[in-house]
Amino acid sequence: MKLKTAALGILFSFTCPVLWAQSPTPDPLAENLFPPELVMQHQSDIGLTEEQRNALIAEVQKAQERFSDLQQRLLKEVESLGALLKREQVEEQAALAQFDKVLNQEREIKRAHMELAIRIKNKLTQEQQTKLQSMRPPMGPGPDGPARGRPSGPDGPERGPGRGPGGPGGPPPGAGPRPPQGQPPEGLFPPERPLVP
To answer: Rounded to 5 degrees, what angle do the CA atoms 18, 186, 47 make?
Structure first.
């Protein structure tokens, strides 16, 4: 278990800093796509039809099954990388080749999230999309939001300095850091909540 945690920590310290850093430019993903929970939360406000609702639920359920499989594959590749890194002398080429496998699995997960987000948007009318845009949590630095381009999640603003164990948005003291989930930027598809009500 310690090996798995260490490998994940090393892996994501190299691959995910961009996801956690505040971006000075707008995020085109967060600005133009709609998380399924936002659509379902406001389904009556945007006039979602029964046919649209059923189609969205089917897409989300299909995607959740796929995400589970992809995350299991990612975990397997991370464990293999951890085993290579655990050795006293790390065989550089083998470790880098395994790291490429990990990155490929991460790419597949992100691509699957993008597919779902595009399918959700394509099922909405222009009027529904416009209404959802106005219902989004505020985004941007300053008084309108916590971090430019990304909405605040259910646990508070994004990770960063002061967001560790016991800090705002972090796990309780003694719980250690949150384990990365191989997910896209926070707010687009939170892994903690089911996507379908």
So the answer is: 135
Amino acid occupying residue 171? P
Residue 25 has a CB neighbour count (10 Å cut-off) of 7
Has residue 28 got a pLDDT over 70? yes
Predicted confidence (pLDDT) at residue 172 exceeds the cutoff of 50: no
Q: How far apart are CA 83 and CA 35, in angstroms?
A: 36
Domain residue spans of the chain: 2-18+37-133
Q: Are 129 and 45 in contact (CB under 8 A)?
A: no
pLDDT in tens, 156-168: 444 444 444 444 4
Query: Within a 10 A sphere around the Cβ of 131, how many other Cβ atoms?
Result: 15
